[in-house]
């Protein structure tokens, strides 16, 4: 933390020579000044990063690299890991049909839950942003389902809704439709978990809400004055101003959906059933690692997922240049 | 963001890299260089001062936690220098935590295990053999029948778990519904044909929407009874001991039961919660089910809440040409190699297994107490609830039949049971034919168990 | 480059406010939509609350919300929790861990995020890629090495494995969240502060932090929820019932091999929502109102 004290000095020496940088000053400065400023910024930056760097080195990087090593071994959680080269990766794509099943279950889940979640959370955030009485109360109530998260009580609640005797079937019976359990049927079980995920949209909504408050009302007023309709205002003001947070929520909900675990674990009681229809990637990884004690195989699965997600996030970051607008860009 | 000048910060970068490498090495050493305590022969025999801290871990909820705590309290009161710190979790999470603790060489000194999971731990050599402690007299096993004691042995014949409670699976039948349907309960010694006859007779008289049984073709314990009744082996070493034809016959029998409308639907079955009090048999939605014998009490509790006065009863599982199909599922206590207070752990196990106060306090909460003297005390106890007495009485009947012992290979729960349930689900949902599902199951189970 | 969102220049005012009657109708319509949606959404929770008021063995008897016999027994029994410990202990433990985690995450993640969002430094891109990279690895595979590490440090059985990493910004989610928020702030404010003689610390503390109140509030809220609901971490590291958190206490109501207490489970689950809900209501001002008054233009 001591380096923080040098920060202001560095900043001041930089400001001293006239002319002071102006907000619109592009290009920033000559190469010499830039390097002096850069070196002071460098020091300040690493001072700010100190806690994170320590945590990274001590708590995160070690276990991460250890798991990377495990991916090339057989490890039953006792004794020493035994080096097996690429055997784990080979098994994944050749002799393990359940692995490929889990990939397809997960992809289906991502394809449904991410767009739904983003649409619902953005829509409700817009509704709950302003212009209505009792907004604070509404927001709290809409947020309530997200608080319960992966509690053990959720499994019982979900049966009350989507079970054979659940409220959905009771409602359908009123209009003369008979249906079996939605949770117990391999064709529909996955979609009940999609609904569970969308039900807990609160986190994404809060992020959007906070972002919407950052959109200056003047922009809307100006657009209205210009004769822009609601849709136009949404497209030309809300979406661009919100794009950093849409980007964030999109990235995070994709990553979360690929790593979805708790909801499936709770609803299927850890089995991924019925008939492997909710065998999410991480659920299978967990079963391999902690139940079947193939931690090497589980680690290999994890790193394949990391590669896939890295590819995806890489593309997303590249595409963000074209549709995400930050306030710090001039 | 444009690239910044490559200034004089090389050294700093190098330092960062060097530092991270050092930390990584430390982490690697920490992971691989974990020490196990060196036990002296006296310690291995459970000899030494009974003092200091030990950790005790078990699975369970509610009453079991209270009773286990009470037993540990008595032990602490008997030994003023001892502190027993307690760890509990529900069955599923319990074993996952044990596996992580095992990886960290940090398993509790007294660890509750079950015969079905013992193989996972003996195969990895993380437990101390208890035989030297029995020889030295630190643990007394004279009141435990040999057949029950053997359920705690590993593949090498050494005793790694002292069985303290023996559970069994039973056929639970809603007596009231059976009587209303004019279906007399199967006679003692009944076989699988009698069982199906009973189901179909009941189905004719049962109200609409109440099937005669829950669909249990995917329940491993029921299948074990079938295999035992035929006199076949479940496992030979780390592979399946029975033939594909046998399993084909079994699942075809269940498909027959299902086709005749005697069982509930696979969808209803798939969504049934695992805990006994939330099961269909407990809410009176099916006539019968295969459940652990100790589920009688909670299931009757839910039935009472329905307020229709239904009565639950428990029967042994069907027999076969080779005799009774029931097997015992023992739970017991083990000492891991990483334990640094073996004498106290041994003393605790001995206290648990033999002290009358422990037997009375625990009251066979997790299977019937294996110590015959303690069992007699409980059966004679006028305060023991009637349902519990019926559970213990059925245990005595099953033990009297000299049930066979199944040695469960490592991976039994995680590989065999999960693959078995899943394969039958594939049959019931029409994803696979019976022979296909049996093929898949054999391939998966044999590959998983061999590892 | 100016953002595409730059407002068009104001022109003539064509229309005034809409007539009040149509506004009233629209408000009414909005409220009805809200209430219908809410009822559907909250049914499971209302059912849970209703079930928690039924006698233990009648919990699953109805899909309706209320039945005749109402009882608070489940709350009393559940609170007692079984044994010498009760939920007051678990609530206390959960709150302690939660508060420490919030403090840790706020300090550490704000510092880190400021550096990534506002400063230029060497290895910025690879280091930020590392932040994102840690998000991508499923936490299950680092569980065992981390357990081994904490066991070596002799931290198992204490709250340290759950809390100390929070002070080291190990939760990349929050770094990323704050980076996104801080980058959305106009940098002209930084420049103005720099003219006033502020260094990086001054800009961080006097400009960025006050303007990031919604981001900080969001971080605090999510940390609260994550920590409050976390089960795996406490289960591994806080094995002794003295140290249990609420989520561990809830888990003990269910066990497939013994007796379960659904009534108590629902009662305590309902209660466990209260602190988080209270925090949400209290934090809401910070989350969504704070920025409006901060003078951001």
TrEMBL record, chain B:
PROSITE patterns on file: PROKAR_LIPOPROTEIN
InterPro entries found in the cross-reference section: Bact_solute-bd_prot1, SBP
Gene3D superfamilies referenced in this protein's UniProt entry, alphabetically: Periplasmic binding protein-like II
Signal peptide per UniProt: 1-30
SUPFAM superfamilies named in the record: Periplasmic binding protein-like II
UniProtKB keywords: Signal
Superkingdom, natural source: Bacteria
Protein name in UniProt: ABC transporter substrate-binding protein
Organism: Streptomyces chisholmiae
From TrEMBL, chain C:
Subcellular location per the Swiss-Prot or TrEMBL entry: Cell membrane
Family membership noted in the UniProt record: Belongs to the binding-protein-dependent transport system permease family.
Record-linked Gene3D superfamilies: MetI-like
Source species, domain of life: Bacteria
Entry membrane topology: Multi-pass membrane protein
Record's keyword annotation contains Iron-sulfur: no
Domain ABC transmembrane type-1 residues, every copy: 91-283
Transmembrane segments: 28-49, 90-115, 127-150, 162-182, 203-225, 261-283
Keyword list, A-Z: Cell membrane, Membrane, Transmembrane, Transmembrane helix, Transport
Protein known as: Carbohydrate ABC transporter permease
Keyword Disulfide bond belongs to the record: no
Primary subcellular site in the record, as a coarse category: membrane
């Amino acid at each position: 933390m001591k380096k923080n004290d040098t920060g202001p000095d560095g900043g001041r020496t930089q400001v001293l020579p006239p002319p002071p940088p102006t907000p619109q000053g592009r290009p920033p400065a000559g190469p010499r000044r830039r390097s002096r400023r850069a070196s002071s910024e460098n020091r300040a930056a690493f001072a700010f990063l100190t806690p994170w760097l320590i945590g990274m080195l001590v708590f995160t990087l070690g276990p991460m690299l250890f798991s990377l090593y495990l991916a090339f071994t057989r490890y039953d959680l006792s004794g020493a890991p035994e080096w097996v080269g690429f055997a784990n990766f080979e098994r994944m794509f050749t002799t393990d049909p359940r692995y490929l099943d889990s990939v397809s279950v997960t992809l289906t889940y991502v394809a449904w839950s991410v767009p739904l979640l983003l649409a619902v959370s953005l829509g409700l955030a817009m509704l709950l942003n302003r212009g209505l009485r009792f907004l604070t109360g509404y927001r709290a109530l809409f947020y309530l389902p997200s608080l319960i998260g992966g509690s053990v009580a959720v499994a019982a609640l979900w049966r009350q809704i989507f079970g054979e005797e659940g409220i959905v079937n009771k409602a359908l019976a009123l209009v003369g439709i008979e249906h079996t359990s939605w949770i117990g049927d391999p064709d529909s079980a996955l979609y009940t978990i999609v609904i569970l995920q969308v039900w807990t949209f609160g986190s994404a909504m809060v992020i959007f809400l906070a972002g919407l408050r950052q959109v200056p009302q003047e922009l809307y007023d100006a657009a209205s004055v210009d004769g822009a309709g609601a849709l136009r205002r949404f497209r030309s003001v809300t979406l661009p101003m919100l794009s950093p947070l849409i980007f964030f929520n999109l990235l995070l909900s994709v990553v979360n959906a690929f790593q979805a675990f708790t909801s499936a674990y709770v609803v299927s009681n850890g089995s991924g059933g019925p008939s492997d229809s909710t065998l999410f990637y991480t659920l299978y990884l967990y079963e391999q690692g902690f139940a079947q004690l193939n931690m090497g195989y589980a680690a290999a699965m994890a790193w394949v997922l990391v590669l896939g997600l890295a590819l995806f996030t890489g593309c997303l970051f590249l595409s963000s240049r074209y549709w995400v607008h930050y306030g710090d860009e001039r | 963001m444009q690239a910044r000048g490559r200034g004089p910060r090389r050294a700093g970068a190098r330092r960062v890299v060097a530092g991270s490498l050092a930390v990584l090495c430390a982490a690697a050493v920490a992971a691989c260089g974990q020490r196990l305590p060196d036990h002296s022969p006296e310690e291995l025999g459970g000899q030494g001062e009974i003092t200091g801290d030990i950790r005790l871990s078990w699975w369970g909820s509610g009453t079991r936690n209270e009773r286990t705590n009470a037993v540990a309290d008595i032990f602490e009161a008997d030994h003023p220098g001892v502190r027993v710190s307690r760890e509990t979790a529900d069955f599923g999470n319990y074993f996952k935590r044990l596996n992580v603790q095992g990886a960290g060489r940090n398993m509790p000194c007294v660890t509750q295990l079950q015969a079905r999971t013992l193989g996972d731990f003996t195969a990895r050599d993380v437990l101390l053999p208890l035989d030297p402690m029995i020889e030295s007299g630190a643990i007394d096993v004279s009141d435990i029948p040999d057949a029950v004691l053997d359920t705690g042995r590993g593949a090498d014949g050494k005793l790694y778990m002292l069985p303290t409670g023996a559970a069994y699976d039973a056929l639970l039948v809603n007596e009231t519904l059976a009587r209303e349907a004019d279906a007399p309960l199967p006679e003692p010694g009944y076989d699988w044909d009698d069982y199906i006859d009973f189901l179909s007779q009941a189905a004719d008289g049962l109200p609409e929407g109440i099937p005669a049984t829950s669909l249990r073709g995917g329940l491993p314990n029921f299948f074990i009874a079938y295999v035992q009744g035929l006199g076949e082996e479940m496992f030979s070493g780390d592979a399946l001991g029975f033939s594909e034809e046998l399993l084909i016959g079994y699942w075809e029998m269940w498909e027959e039961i299902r086709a005749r409308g005697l069982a509930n639907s696979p969808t209803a079955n798939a969504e049934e919660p695992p805990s006994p009090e939330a099961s269909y048999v407990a809410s009176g939605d099916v006539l019968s089910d295969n459940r652990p014998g100790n589920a009688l009490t909670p299931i009757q509790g839910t039935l009472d809440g329905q307020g229709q006065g239904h009565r639950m009863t428990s029967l042994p599982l069907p027999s076969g040409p080779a005799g009774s199909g029931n097997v015992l599922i023992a739970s017991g206590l083990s000492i891991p190699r990483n334990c640094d207070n073996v004498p106290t752990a041994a003393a605790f196990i001995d206290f648990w297994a033999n002290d009358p106060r422990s037997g009375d306090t625990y009251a066979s909460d997790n299977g019937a107490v294996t110590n015959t003297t303690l069992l007699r005390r409980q059966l004679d106890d006028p305060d023991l609830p009637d349902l519990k007495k019926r559970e213990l009485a059925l245990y005595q009947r099953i033990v009297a039949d000299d049930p066979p012992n199944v040695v469960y290979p490592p991976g039994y729960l995680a590989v065999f049971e999960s693959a078995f349930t899943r394969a039958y689900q594939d049959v019931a949902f029409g994803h696979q034919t019976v022979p296909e599902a049996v093929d898949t199951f054999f391939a998966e189970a044999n590959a998983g168990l061999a590892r | 480059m100016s953002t595409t969102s730059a407002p068009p220049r104001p022109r003539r005012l064509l229309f005034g406010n809409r007539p009040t009657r149509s506004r009233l109708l629209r408000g009414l319509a909005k409220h009805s939509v809200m209430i219908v949606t809410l009822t559907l959404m909250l049914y499971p929770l209302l059912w849970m609350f209703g079930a928690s008021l039924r006698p233990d063995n009648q919990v699953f008897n109805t899909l309706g919300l209320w039945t005749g016999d109402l009882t608070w027994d489940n709350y009393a029994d559940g609170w007692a929790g079984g044994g010498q410990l009760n939920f007051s202990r678990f609530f206390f433990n959960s709150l302690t861990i939660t508060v420490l985690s919030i403090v840790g995450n706020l300090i550490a993640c704000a510092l880190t995020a400021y550096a990534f969002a506002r400063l230029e430094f060497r290895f910025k891109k690879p280091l930020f890629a590392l932040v994102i990279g840690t998000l991508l690895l499923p936490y299950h595979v680092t569980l065992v090495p981390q357990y081994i590490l904490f066991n070596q440090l002799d931290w198992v059985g204490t709250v340290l494995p759950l809390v100390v990493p929070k002070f080291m910004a190990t939760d990349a989610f929050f770094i990323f969240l704050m980076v996104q928020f801080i980058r959305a702030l106009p940098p002209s404010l930084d420049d103005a502060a720099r003219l006033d003689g502020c260094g990086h610390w001054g800009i961080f503390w006097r400009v960025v932090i006050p303007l990031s109140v919604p981001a900080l509030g969001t971080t605090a809220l999510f940390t609260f929820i994550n920590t409050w609901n976390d089960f795996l971490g406490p289960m591994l590291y806080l094995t002794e019932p003295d140290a249990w958190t609420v989520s561990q206490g809830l888990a003990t109501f269910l066990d497939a091999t013994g007796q379960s207490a659904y009534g108590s489970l629902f009662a305590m689950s309902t209660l466990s929502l209260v602190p988080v809900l209270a925090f949400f209501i209290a934090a809401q001002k910070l989350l969504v109102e704070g920025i409006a008054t901060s003078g951001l233009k």
